[in-house]
Specification:
Largest sheet: 8 strands, parallel, barrel
Structural class: alpha/beta
Helix content: 10-25%
Order of helices and strands: HEEEEEEHEHHEHEHEEHEEEHEEHEHH
Distance between the termini: 33 Å
Number of strands: 17
Number of helices: 11
Shape: globular
Strand content: 15-25%
């Protein structure tokens, strides 16, 4: 049984990774005692934000917290579609999400890029404002990048030179992106940073420490993390694993060195079978190593139902993991685009699809645990985007010169045929 209420969990002195004693993971064969929120050894926190202790995410006052929400695409391939307060109110107030993950593109953000959009940073500010006002925290996710080439003008093709899209790993320009983003939002702990979306086709060594591969200098998760911390930002940081972020099996032996780190997994059907979950990501939670968040998941088969979503959410509830479901976007096209994308909504009125129905039901079953900031975060933002901040001397108009900026309908799961 899942969707346990806050009251029931408090009654058992067990919430979001806080355990009164020993817990046993039958699936993984691991017995552990969760540390919970150890306030005497708490890591630094960004204002209003969180710290991590073992597998538990904690508020600054030592209260365990779980994130449950949705993913919001469209700002990776363009300036953002239907960016309105009402849209975020439907997520946070009607569907009861307490976090939203927003996909971004470093080339629209960085003023030295050919695809730079002078309005893009302001739109991100609006998104943060709308989300926090609706009671949600925000994950800013570096979704698309350019292999270190700011001159690219197209958006087509994963893992390819000469395009801004999903690549195998971050690049040197990603460091500048995170310097600017972390500087801007370091005083708003309700903003989390997902360092790079769906690393793929690289080794664990490159994932952690970077290196030359596929013709460009890849920047590893450790250096991206260090870049964020160098700004003074103590916000939670999220790192996705290999195999398009599904696989976290290498993290236990070679984690990122630092604090306030969560690890992301992306379990998609059919390629990421449930039998692989324990060794790929659940062990981080059952052994109290680090917090896990499924920042994407869904059923991409042509006859999708909500069963996969419900199974993943049940596992997250059982092992006190966090999740955001892909995707709050009305996919279109022939066949079942709600499956192939996959989509949670069929229109901007938030009419749920079959998978959206399962996710909405799950969100409604949790006791209220809102995130966000009553002041909507605007007053806490600092800087104007770092050295290459908004208004820099480079091409404006962003995607005016871009080609092929369409979401496609094949799901987020990388080798299975993702377009994001």
């Amino acid at each position: 049984m899942f969707h346990r209420s806050l009251a029931a969990l408090l009654g058992l002195t067990l919430l979001a990774g806080c355990d009164a004693g020993g817990s046993t993971d039958d699936a993984a064969g691991v017995s552990s005692t969760l540390r919970g929120c150890e306030t005497d050894a708490a890591a630094p926190t960004a204002p209003g934000g969180y710290y991590t202790s073992g597998t538990t995410v904690c508020t600054a006052d030592g209260t365990p917290h779980l994130f449950h929400g949705v993913d919001r695409p469209s700002m990776e391939w363009g300036p953002g579609e239907n960016i309105a307060a009402s849209d975020f109110e439907m997520m946070g107030q009607d569907w009861h999400a307490n976090i939203v993950r927003v996909a971004l593109n470093q080339d629209f953000w960085l003023s030295g890029a050919a695809l730079y959009n002078s309005n893009y940073q302001h739109t991100v500010d609006q998104v943060v404002h709308y989300a926090e006002a609706a009671g949600m925290d925000v994950i800013l996710d570096l979704h698309w990048s350019d292999r270190g080439d700011l001159s690219v003008t197209t958006l087509n093709g994963q893992n390819q030179n000469g395009t801004s899209n999903q690549q195998q790993m971050a690049d040197v320009n990603s460091k500048q992106f995170w310097t600017e983003v972390a500087t801007k939002y370091q005083n708003d702990g309700h903003v989390l940073f997902e360092l790079y979306n769906e690393p793929n086709s690289i080794s664990w060594g490159v994932w952690l420490n970077g290196g030359m591969a596929s013709g460009y200098q890849m920047v590893g998760m450790q250096e991206l993390y260090d870049t964020v911390r160098a700004t003074g930002a103590n916000n939670l940081v999220i790192a996705g694993g290999l195999s398009w972020s599904f696989d976290l099996s290498g993290v236990g032996g070679a984690p990122i060195n630092g604090y306030n780190i969560m690890y992301a997994t992306h379990p998609y059907k059919p390629q990421d079978a449930e039998t692989r979950w324990a060794s790929s990501f659940e062990y981080l939670a059952t052994r109290d190593i680090a917090p896990v968040i499924a920042t994407e998941f869904g059923d991409t088969t042509s006859t999708c139902t909500g069963d996969w979503d419900s199974q993943l959410i049940a596992a997250c509830d059982q092992y006190k993991m966090n999740w955001t479901a892909w995707a709050w976007y009305p996919a279109s096209g022939g066949g079942r685009p709600d499956c192939s994308f996959p989509a949670l909504i069929s229109d901007w009125d938030a009419t749920p699809t079959v998978q959206g129905t399962a996710v909405k039901k799950a969100l409604a079953a949790y006791a209220p645990s809102p995130g966000g900031n009553p002041d909507a975060g605007v007053a806490t933002m600092t800087g104007s985007g770092g050295a290459n901040g908004q208004g820099g001397a480079s091409s404006e108009g962003g995607q005016a010169g871009a080609t092929g900026a369409t979401p496609g309908a094949s799901g987020e799961g990388g080798m299975s045929g993702a377009t994001q």
